[in-house]
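Researcher: We plan to redesign the surface later, but first we want a full-length starting point. Tokens attached.
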């Protein structure tokens, strides 16, 4: 929903920040700012897949544990994980212990390696799917778009798992492929400037 809240510092922010104090720092410094780093892109897509059926609050609280468990989401390392690693991770109380999602991260790491071999980087591929501002819906009123559906379809065709259109759109929102900060949120303009100054990977 396109709405804001006024926080203790007097700044208007996206209303979802009200859910937990931990959201504010994430919202102000990360959410929506454009990212071209392959490790961060891979990490975020993995974490969004873990979030499926859960709240982002749960995943954010465990993010450092996830990073330790998956070697900092270095997909070249994760691609080497074995069944022993899967069993190890299923006993790790610091993360979400879901076999299918754990195995998907390992699978997707191999897919990421292949994508880098084909495209040069993950960033080059993902930034082809930047949401057109002319087609963008009102901020935070949709959970999927035609672009996220298309990206999801292409990723699945390339062998990626747990990358449905909703998961992919949440990834796009977070990584700056769309500016979905609410109208009236003071950080909408900050993100807009960051995206304008961002050099798109080619």
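Model: Full-length starting sequence:
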């Amino acid at each position: 929903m396109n709405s804001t809240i006024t926080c203790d510092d007097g700044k208007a922010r996206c209303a979802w920040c009200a859910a937990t104090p931990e959201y504010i720092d994430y919202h102000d410094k990360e959410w929506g700012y454009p990212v071209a780093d392959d490790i961060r892109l891979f990490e975020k897509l993995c974490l969004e897949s873990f979030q499926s059926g859960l709240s982002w609050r749960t995943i954010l609280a465990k993010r450092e544990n996830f990073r330790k468990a998956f070697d900092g989401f270095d997909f070249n390392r994760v691609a080497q994980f074995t069944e022993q690693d899967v069993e190890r991770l299923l006993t790790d109380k610091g993360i979400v212990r879901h076999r299918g999602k754990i195995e998907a991260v390992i699978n997707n790491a191999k897919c990421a390696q292949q994508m880098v071999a084909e495209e040069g980087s993950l960033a080059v591929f993902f930034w082809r799917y930047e949401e057109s501002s002319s087609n963008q819906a009102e901020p935070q009123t949709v959970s999927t778009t035609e672009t996220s559906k298309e990206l999801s379809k292409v990723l699945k065709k390339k062998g990626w798992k747990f990358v449905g259109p909703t998961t992919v759109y949440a990834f796009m929102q977070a990584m700056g492929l769309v500016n979905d900060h609410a109208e009236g949120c003071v950080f909408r303009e900050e993100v807009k400037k960051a995206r304008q100054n961002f050099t798109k990977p080619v």
